[in-house]
Queue: 3 jobs
Job 1
Amino acid sequence: MNSSEYNFKRCKLCGTFAAQATYDLRSSIIYVCQHCDFHFLNHLDHTPEKNHCTIQLNIQNRKYLDSRADENASLHLSRLTFMQSHISLSGAKVLDIGAGLGQFHSLLRTQGAESHGIEPSDIRREYAQQQSGIQLQSELVDDNYWQTSYVQYFDAMTLWDVIEHVNFPKETIESACRLLKTGGILFLDTPSRESLSYGISQKFYRYMPGKMSLFLPSFYSTAPYGHKQIFTPSQLSDLFESCGLEIIFSSRSYTNRFFSSHKIILAGRKV
């Protein structure tokens, strides 16, 4: 499905036809659901079946990926500590959704986990293969590849800075939950809409002449795999619970980091 095939008046979170075009970012529009207050962009990535243009890893994009390879190294260590406070990773079956260049996938393996990874970006999968010998899958979590052979297979699943990127977040969480064992844990982090810059930007747009969007464009992107929606903590907690996940941890920053990151950090156990 692409943007022209989806009716953006239908909220991607609650499903009601109550969303209205609210913030014009010039290149795109933020829709706001009048029922559940969900904010999402009027843009969808092409599904893999319709994306016939495969991007090859070349010198230019390799240099770009090299420059970003270590940018989340310390954050991944915080995420690993977070997971280990809730589950023993030795022998655990873990699916890392949105594995990127495979750094966290590698960390899981160093802890003895049976780690699987999903990464839809062709060049990131190729980079991970060439740099670290890591084999990541292109099939999304709702694909038959996972949904027919891995139902209730995993002890844990991770979505690190992923849920804001997907076309349909509710369906993504539902699909992930089907792959979790009873008692398995879904770990997630994502930017929070309750950040100060987001709130200030909304007020500027509403009350200043010329409808200034201020920082709002920095939260969203129509680039492939860009940010398509931003959650509030309560929206994401409600989504977890509606999918049969009991919230066992919720925070806006990792305990071993020295500042508030204005993120939503959740762990939910399948009941």
Job 2
Amino acid sequence: MEKKIISIADELRRSISLPFEGKLVGGNGAGRAVATKGKLVMEKKTLSAAAGILEAMKGFDCSGNTHMLHPRLDVRTVKLLNSFKLASGIDMNRFIAFSIHYLFQKHPELKTYIKQTLENFEL
């Protein structure tokens, strides 16, 4: 018989993804989840939006990137990103790289601002 070695992180991810009994309380209702009969039921809008973003993040190729940044994040953000990694398997570097790329893609006026500022810059 072949035994499979499972890391603690894999075991945590698996246990987090399993359905549970009870109700989650709190939040503003936008991403509120209620567990009923062992199944996690989330609002369809929140679930489909999260699934789309997760798929985009998983498909985001940052393997060719060689430059490293060392962002300074507050404790709450780091804890949230660590929890996100456990829940989705997407690490902080991919999350941050995707988020910055997405920000510039959705707000091209930032690129325009940068170009205009550098054109008008005098030494």
Job 3
Amino acid sequence: MRAFGFARDLLRSDSAGAHRVTYTELFFDLVFVFAVTQVSHVLLHEQSALTLLHAVMLAMVVWWVWMFTTWASSWLDPERGAVRALFVVLMLLGLLLASAIPEAFGDRAVLFAVCLVLMQLSRSVFTLFAFGRSRPEHAVNFVRIIVWHAVAGTLWLVGAFLPDEGRLVVWLIALAVDYIGPRTRFWTPGLGSSALASWNISGAHMAERVSLFLIIALGESIVVTGAAFSTAPLDVVHLVAFLAAFVGTVLLWLLYFSHSQQSGSAYIERATERGMIAQTAYTYIPLLLVLGIVLSAVADGLVLQRPSGLPTAWTAGLLCGSAIVYLVGLLLFRRATGMRWSLTLVAGAAVVAVLWPVAGLLPTAVVAWGVNAVLAFVVLTEAIASRRTGTRAD
């Protein structure tokens, strides 16, 4: 394995500060601001169970592409010219992929699939060659990853040329392959599974990157709220709905960044075997947080479109369902990063679940504020518990 690879070292050094988030990574994230916006707009423009399934699948794709790049950038040094060039290429492909999201299950399926496959394979092949000379055991791991990308990529490309029903089935299988790979440690015939030692990354870098993606998702909620209110009548009803949407976004931010982010970051940084923690707590579980935020943003947009009267089943479901998904994701994240099981989070999710069936009998704005009241209760209770145990909030 030492006989091939880039002649120049493109990996981060082990010195202090070498694993900080770089401006190249932040620049790359701009594409995903657009991608998250595109996913939320899919649900804003059409409300149906099939559209919801499409939106969840698209969000999972966007998250997975971003997350694999985050893992790679934990090892690659974005300050190197070749790595910067890789990020620019990925940005271009990501922009094309994001532009195809509204018609990913329609006329732009081929563009979506091709860009997805190219992003996954090009990044992994580049990282393989970056590891080739200095860390052959990591290079073998990326051979495994490339095999899994190739299998999933074949399904994405085949599905793009099938009719609607066939495309959905094949793409669901492709998505399952993508998500199963890391859990099997990319087991490959003849190569076996990757060693946990080859997954060690900077815990601080991983925690900060995931936090920044959650900020992107929360930013989309702000954009949806502001855009909807800018075209709405300026009256008391719409103002109350606007405030409900804004307060809801602030509460989601407080739930993660006041009571979980710092503790999670400290936990993974102290751990000796960070690979499995990074995979569980910072790769799989945050998807629930992202989905909760995106669905909440869509709900806010729908509330501002029709703040008075009774909510539709769709709007009520998004208002309550998004909060439940977020609270469950936060509960799992806390446990995966060594924190206690939170009865407050369980109680909050249960109360919202009880509110859901009766939400259709209440005015839309009342439902929105009711969900906010539950989230506020969870925030305050967690803050009190944090002070009693002597843990420090961000």
